[in-house]
Amino acid sequence: MGPIGFLLLCLCVPVLPVQFCTTTGSWTVCQGELMAFPEDIPTSVTNLNVSNNRLSSLEQNTLIKFVNIKKLNISRNLITNIHNKAFFRLTDLELLDLSFNNLIEISDKIIFNNVKLKWFSIAHNKNLKYIPHLQSKSLQRFNVSSCGIQEMNETTFQEVESIEILDLSFNEIKEIRDHTFDALTMLCELDVSNNELQSAQFINSDCSLSLTYLDISSNNISVLDWITFQTLLSLKKIHFHNNPWRCDERMKYVYENMLNNETTLNLQCVSASDNKKISWHEWYHSVNKVSSCPVNFVTDSPTTCSTSIINKCPKVSCSCDSSWVVFYVIAAIICLLNIVFMIVIFRKNTSSRNNSQ
Ligand SMILES: *[C@@H]1O[C@H](CO)[C@@H](O)[C@H](O)[C@H]1NC(C)=O
Ligand SMILES: *[C@@H]1O[C@H](CO)[C@@H](O)[C@H](O)[C@H]1NC(C)=O
Ligand SMILES: *[C@@H]1O[C@H](CO)[C@@H](O)[C@H](O)[C@H]1NC(C)=O
Ligand SMILES: *[C@@H]1O[C@H](CO)[C@@H](O)[C@H](O)[C@H]1NC(C)=O
Ligand SMILES: *[C@@H]1O[C@H](CO)[C@@H](O)[C@H](O)[C@H]1NC(C)=O
Ligand SMILES: *[C@@H]1O[C@H](CO)[C@@H](O)[C@H](O)[C@H]1NC(C)=O
Known about the structure:
Layout: H1 3-12, E1 21-24, E2 27-30, E3 47-49, E4 57-58, E5 71-73, E6 81-82, E7 95-97, E8 119-121, E9 141-143, E10 165-167, E11 189-191, E12 213-215, H2 226-230, E13 237-239, E14 246-247, H3 251-258, H4 262-265, E15 268-271, E16 277-279, H5 280-286, E17 298-299, E18 305-306, H6 323-356
Parallel strand pairs: 2-3, 3-5, 4-6, 5-7, 7-8, 8-9, 9-10, 10-11, 11-12, 12-13, 14-15
Antiparallel strand pairs: 1-2, 15-16, 17-18
Bound molecules: 2-acetamido-2-deoxy-beta-D-glucopyranose (6 copies).
């Protein structure tokens, strides 16, 4: 091929724009070590995945065009800063994944305008060190795992009342003050494992908890007070392991009511008399005063039981398992249709009988 042929070839091959984003199904995925949002994202995009790139910040206008976004995954980038109005126009947003970035700051107002946001993760932003005081009426799942959190207080979760699942694991929390979770009346799952807590007293903060799942494993808690657990009426699963449990009188009720269970027979506690580790099971059977109080009763003394304090608590509902509601509604509609159908048939029958008479 001579030089003229080469020139002709060059003219014939159009200059293709580089494409970073591909759309498969409902997701548009952008990849290529991107340091800025690429130009070829369709503005109609509903599910956008720009995870695993090298984005370092989100400005006020970065996302402004994408008003239809429902799910946005910006996980695994190098984001340190996000403008407090970066997501302001995304009023349909339901899921936002900011995990595995390098956030050092995040505005309390960050999801203020995202009235449909249900799922929000800032997990694995190790230098964040604090939890933003979010304001949301829709948020159900909030993940703050591995963010170097040391403290929070009763104002932290005051305006995110709809949270059902909260993950605070793998932080450096030493203390959770009473009333911290008081506003979270829908809370179903709480994970505070792998922190430095010395007490689980925070569960007792009010009568408001509807927890079904609690993880307090891998902390520095030595005593669990059964009175504390009185309020956890809905509790179905609890993880205790890897705490320096003491063989303490107060633990008896915990053992009786929660731990008469194969998995927990392996748990050990440190005996007060000789500092030796023994199994909870062994220890329990060596303590002769056995309480006969059933679950949900307060034990005034080892031998008398008074009715539960639970009755004083406001009734809370837990909707983690809301799929059943749909089922019941459908069943009710079918029942109703059946009844209507039967009435119609009955009427028809009687009227045709009347006619034939
Ligand atoms: C976001 O993308 C990452 C992969 O880069 C994935 O691990 C993560 O599950 C995604 N988040 C959601 C909520 O789908
Ligand atoms: C997002 O993209 C990453 C690749 O960058 C992929 O591993 C992940 O599965 C995608 N997630 C979703 C929910 O599309
Ligand atoms: C929170 O995020 C971490 C990291 O992505 C994940 O391993 C964990 O399962 C998440 N927690 C919840 C409750 O979804
Ligand atoms: C709670 O913490 C915030 C900062 O995170 C602080 O401004 C506020 O004063 C604290 N409130 C109480 C009652 O300590
Ligand atoms: C665990 O708690 C004890 C007090 O009960 C304290 O002396 C010790 O320093 C704590 N350990 C850690 C690792 O925080
Ligand atoms: C007892 O163990 C079973 C599984 O062996 C578990 O399903 C149940 O939740 C446990 N009960 C409590 C109170 O932890």
